Amino acid sequence: MKIGIVCYPTYGGSGVVATELGKSLASRGHQVHFISYKQPARLDFFSGNTFYHEVYVSNYPLFDFPPYETALISHLVDVVKFEKLDVLHVHYAIPHASAAIMARQILASEGIHIPIITTLHGTDITLVGKDASFGPVVCYSINQSDGVTTVSESLRRDTEKQFNIRRPIEAIPNFIDLSRFNHQPRNHFKLAVAPNGERLVVHTSNFRKVKRVDDVVRVFAEIRKQLPAKLLLVGDGPERIHIEMLCRELDLQGSVSFLGKQNQIEEILSICDLFLMPSETESFGLAALEAMACHVPVISSNAGGLPELNQDGKTGFLCQVGDVKSMAEKSLIILSDDATLKQFKENAKARADEFDINRIVPMYEKFYEEIIRKSQKA
Ligand code: GMT
Exposed, middle or buried, 292 (CB in 10 Å: 0-12/13-18/19+)? Predict the structure, then answer.
């Protein structure tokens, strides 16, 4: 198949999933064309089957807001037409789905047929979709796509609740490349970060409000009252300065390390003992899956799709959003003795194995085939 993948190029979940999906499809013999405004962060190698098309928005004094969506539509028309694509798979509703629908219309006027598949990732529905100014376009784009997937059952239900959806939606979960995330822990690295055998707690995110990073710090402060521990904060974003101030306020400076954005996240995760994800909302929780693949149990909120990943009492624990006390208590159950920790670590890894990329990507292939077949008949 010749597949076009439209995505955000950033480190965020939707861009990572789209890029890893495209790389895997290419390795399975498909021709994959990535279309974005910058080379996707995870598109770190090229094979004979992967291509990258950059969308350039020309600058003109009249444009207070560069018309990215218009440039993207034109680019999509061009790539579909000249690369003879079989399907366009767009990740994140805004503005990718609406741009693709418009491109499909232009191509149809020239007698070219291209089915559009939209994958919803979460914030495009739960946060952005709630903004009334985007609502009508998001709803129309979902209804007009030839196929729609969500990354969890929970997001499928939320989408159906939020909008007037008149079409089926299929949930295909996030996945993980286990060959990358089976990193052997580097003992010298662990020794450098936790020289006295402290338990290592970790959080990775884009430091947006929705991630509730302040809860991470407050849970950690409670853990540290009971046992020696260190906290690694990976990533960066708008809340970072506020979190640094909170660490000073709680007198945690010596115990918390801000590592910023990191490419080799598996090296860090593989030396950790506990991952904290207290998010306000989380459609799936890819960062938690990455931790679990590195044998790290998870204390998470029970929001959105997290219960579809994290198994309460087995791979970690699920707590109410904002319930710092319970998150700290549950963390201590996991961390307090080696045998319990070992069991949770094994369970977390076994659960992550169920989301193996080699099991999930064929679901997308099957979905593409089905949508292409149906749209040819229509
Ligand atoms: O979590 C973020 O803020 C990034 C966001 C995105 O849209 O890129 O991630 C979303 O998509 C990921 C991949 O499908 C999911 O694993 C994340 O749970 C989801 N984030 C939220 O729902 C907050």
Answer: buried
> Within 13 Å and on the Cβ side, how many CA atoms surround 28?
17
CA 17 – ligand 1 centroid, Å:
9
Per residue in 3-39, pLDDT tens? 999 999 986 789 999 999 999 999 999 999 999 999 9
**For the chain, which domains are there?**
2-175+357-377 (3.40.50.2000), 187-353 (3.40.50.2000)
Rounded to the nearest 10 degrees, the angle between the axes of helix 98-109 and helix 135-144 is 50
Pairing between strand 50-54 and 31-36?
A: parallel
The atom of ligand 1 lying closest to the CA of 92 is: 7
Specify the amino acid at residue 297. P
Ligand 1 neighbourhood includes 91 CB (under 6 angstroms): no
**For the whole model, what pTM was predicted?**
0.95
DSSP line for 163-174: S---S--EE---
**92 CA distance to ligand 1 middle (Å):** 10
CA of 109 to the centre of ligand 1 (A): 35
Residues 6+ apart with CB under 8 A from 57: 37, 66, 67, 68, 71
Q: CA 93, CA 172: separation in Å to the nearest integer? A: 16
Mean pLDDT of each 10-residue bin along the chain, 378 residues long? 95 89 96 95 84 90 86 98 98 94 98 97 78 88 97 96 93 96 81 93 96 98 98 96 97 94 92 97 97 98 98 98 98 97 98 98 98 89
